[in-house]
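stage 2 :: seqdesign
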């Protein structure tokens, strides 16, 4: 149980930061510009990095690539799932005019609805998590170099 609490804790904090960033963008009406979502990858990367780093600091002898990779994935997946749930709630309940503005900003919209946009947000978050975890683990893997 102790091994799973660390990524859950960091996943919750990462999702809170993602939600706070989205709400700050909403204050300035910049949340309808998809370019600002690129910073979500940076937030996710920092959350995954800190979770893996903290795990390695807690038990450096038993830390392995697989263990770190699992911690990174769980952290990112939890953050993504919670942010996606928040995004769906925001787009349907808090600000119903958000989605039409977002689709207008994207020029075209392709007849997308809230379900498709929420699905895309979730898939982008999960893909970002996998890529970021692979990148972060390059920093923390044990080197086999003898020189």
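stage 2 :: out
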């Amino acid at each position: 149980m102790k091994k799973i609490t660390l990524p859950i804790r960091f996943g919750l904090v990462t999702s809170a930061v993602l939600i706070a960033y989205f709400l700050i963008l909403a204050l300035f009406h910049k949340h309808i510009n998809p370019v600002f979502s690129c910073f979500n990858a940076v937030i996710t990367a920092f959350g995954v990095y800190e979770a893996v780093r903290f795990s390695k600091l807690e038990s450096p002898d038993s830390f392995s690539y697989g263990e770190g990779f699992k911690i990174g994935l769980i952290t990112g997946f939890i953050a993504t799932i919670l942010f996606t749930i928040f995004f769906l709630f925001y787009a349907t309940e808090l600000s119903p005019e958000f989605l039409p503005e977002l689709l207008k900003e994207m020029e075209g919209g392709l007849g997308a609805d809230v379900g498709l946009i929420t699905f895309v947000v979730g898939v982008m978050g999960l893909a970002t998590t996998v890529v970021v975890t692979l990148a972060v683990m390059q920093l923390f893997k044990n080197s086999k170099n003898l020189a």
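stage 3 :: structure notes
- The two ends are 38 Å apart (CA to CA).
- The chain has a mean pLDDT of 90.
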